[in-house]
Specification:
heterodimer; A: mainly alpha; 13 helices; globular; B: mainly alpha
Chain lengths: 312, 281
Amino acid sequence: MKPLLRKLLQGLLLILGVTLISFLLMVWFGPDQTYTLIGKNASAEQIEQIHQQLGYDQPFFKRYLDYLASLATLDLGTSNASGEQVKKILMRTVPVSLALMIPGFILGNLLGIALGLSAASHHGQWRDRLISGLSVGGMSISFLVVIIAFQVLLSTPYGLDLFPVRGWQVSGFGSYLQYVTVPTLALVFVTLGYNTRFYRAVFIEESGKDHIRTARAYGASHTEILWKHVLKNSMVPIVTRVMFSIPLVVISGSLLIESYFGIPGIGLATFEAITSGDQPVLKAVVGLTAVAFVAIQVLSEMLYRLLDPRVS
Amino acid sequence: MGGRTDILGKLKSDRAGLAGFLIVTFFFLIALGVWLGWLGQGWSDASGGRWESPGSAHWFGTNILGQDIFQRAVYSVRTAFEIGLVVAVFSTLLGAVLGALAGWYSGSWVDATVMWMKGVLDSIPFYLFVAALAFALHGQPWAMHLAMIATFWTTTGRLVRAEVMKIKSMDYVRSARSIGLHDSLILARHVLPNTSHILLVQATIAFVAAIKTEVILSFLGLGVQDGVSWGLMLAESTQEVLAGHFANFIAASGLLFLLLIGFNLLADALQDALDPRQAAL
C-alpha cells in the first residue's frame, strides 16, 4: 500500500501546483471583469460593490484558499458571462465532448496498435518501412490542415458533400453519426502517426526480450507469439499511454475541434471562458482536469499491479 | 558514441535523413533570403484584385484583400523559423539546466522541485495553458513563445536528468570531484557536453512542435499578432475553402508539410546516428 500512499501524496502536491498556476494565470492576472459586468460609466460605489462580489478586494492567499475551498466542496458557483450554474454548464457540455471524442480516441489507439503490431512483426521489411514512413508523414501534417481537408472532401460540394459542414444538431443515432464522422476521421488521422510509432517501438522492444526468444525456440507459432506474448506483455505501456492521454486529448483536442466545427462541448465552453475571463467556469475546468489527471495516475498505479505481478 | 565524423558518415548514408537535411537547409536559405530583404517583401501589399487565380503575375493567386499568396507563403518561412528557433533553443536550454540540476542533486529538494514543476506543467492541458498565459500577458506577442518554452522543456528535462544521473557515477566525473573542482564547473564542462546528443534531437523535435502549435494558436487568435504565418493563412482559408478558394490553404499547408517532414526525417536520422541503443530498434 505504501507506494499508493506516496502516489496520493504526490497527487495532492500536483493538484496544489496546477491550481496555483491556474489561479495565478486565470484569476490573479486574468482579465478584469469589472467593466464588462457594469458598463463603462459606473460610479465608484458600483465598482467597489462589483469588486467585492468578484473578490478583487481580497489579498492573494485569501483568494487562492477560497478558490481551493470552492473546488474541494464542488461549490462551483455561476458563470459570470451567462449567469448559468457552472455545474449545469459542465453537465450540458461534457457529455457532448465525450460523445464527440471517444470514437476517435478509441479508433486511433486500436488502429495504432494494429499497425504497430503489423510493423513490428515484419521489423525491417518493406511493410515495416511503409508503415513507419507513413507515420512520419502523418506526424508532419497539422491538425488544422487535417480538419480543413476532411471538411472540404466530405462536407462541401467540392468533395463528396455527405456530411453537415459544421454544428451539432444531434437528436438520435442517425444524426449523431452525421455530425461525429468528420471530426472522428480527423482525430484518428492526426493521432494515428504518433500512436503507430509509439506502439511499434513498444512491440519491437518487447519482441527482443529473452522470453520471446525462448517461446520461439519452443516452436510457438508467429501469431501465438504476437498475441499471447508480445501484446500481453506490452499492456503496461499501452495502458499508461491511453490513460495519460485521456484528459489531454479530450480537453486540448476538443478545444480545437469544437471551436472549428462550432460544437457546444467543454472545449468550446472553456475557450470562451478564457477569452471572456469567466473565472468560475475556468476554475472548474482546470481544477477538475487536474484532479482527473491525478486520479488517473493513482488508478494506473493500481492497474499496473493487476497487469504485472512483479510491480510491488 | 562515435566521433563527429562517424556521426556525419552515418547521417550521409541515411537517405531519408539526408533528404530531411536538404529540405531543412532549403527552407533555411529561404528564411535567410527573407531576413536579408531579398524574398517575400511584398507580402502585405494589395497588389492585385480579390481572389485572383494563379498566373504569371501572382504565382499562387491572391487572397481576399488582393495580397499575393506566394509572397505571403514565402515570408511565412521566416516567421516559422523565428518561432521554431526561439522555442527550440530556449526550451532545450531550460530543459538542459533544470534536468542537469535535478539529476546532479537527485533525491534532494532541488530534484523534487524540478520534478514537481514538470508534473504540474504536464498535467495542465496545453492549449488551456497557452490561452491563459496569452490573456494574462494581455496580448503580448511573446506570450505564445513563452508558453511553449515553459511547457516544452519537460521532456528534455526528464531525459537529461536520467543521463546526468548515469554520468554522475562515472570515473572521470568522480576524479574531477576528488581533485576538488566546483560542482558548477564539473556540470558545465564535463556533464552537460555529454548530453549534447539528447539536446540536439530534442531541439529538432521542439522545433517541429513549435511550428505545429503556432498554426493552432494562430487559428484560435492566440498566435502571431502582426505579420503573416502559415497559421494565419490557414485561419484565413477556413472561410475561403467553403467558397471554393483553395490557394491559401494549399500554399500554406503544402509548405508547412514539407518543412515538418524535413525536420521529422532529420530528427529521426539524428536519433539513429547519436543514440545507438535506440537505433537498434
